[in-house]
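subagent[fold] <- orchestrator: predict structure for attached chain, return tokens only, no commentary.
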Amino acid sequence: MKRFIALGATLLSIAGPAAAIDYPEERGLVPSVVPPAPDETGRVNNVPQWRVTPGAPTEAPVAAANSIDDYFARYDANHDGVITWSEAQVDPDLVHAFNRADANSDSVLTRAEFQDAARIAVMERNSAAGASGR
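subagent[fold] -> orchestrator:
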């Protein structure tokens, strides 16, 4: 029995640090403040920002899909490879640039014409921002 108690005491002293409470803030996993309780509707307002402690592993940021092909696919609702006048109506900037970018006047924008329309829209937006900043 003495051996069993001695073995138990030895194991407890060895496993003591391993069995300690895990503090997630050591790994950067706690909010900067205690989250507020939900209101009567069950919605939590003023959710705190999560902080990452220096040296804690962080996740790699997800790359946003912002290539010209991604934008073209968003506007090409029926996926026929061209953007029609009706498909362009979802974006006022594209509507303003549509006729100037439609090089062959066939009332649709190919990918290349859409890229020109994007350039026209950006130039117009930048020139409008410059004019309003004066």
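orchestrator: received. Logging for downstream: The domain at 68-128 is CATH 1.10.238 (Recoverin; domain 1). The chain has a mean pLDDT of 73.
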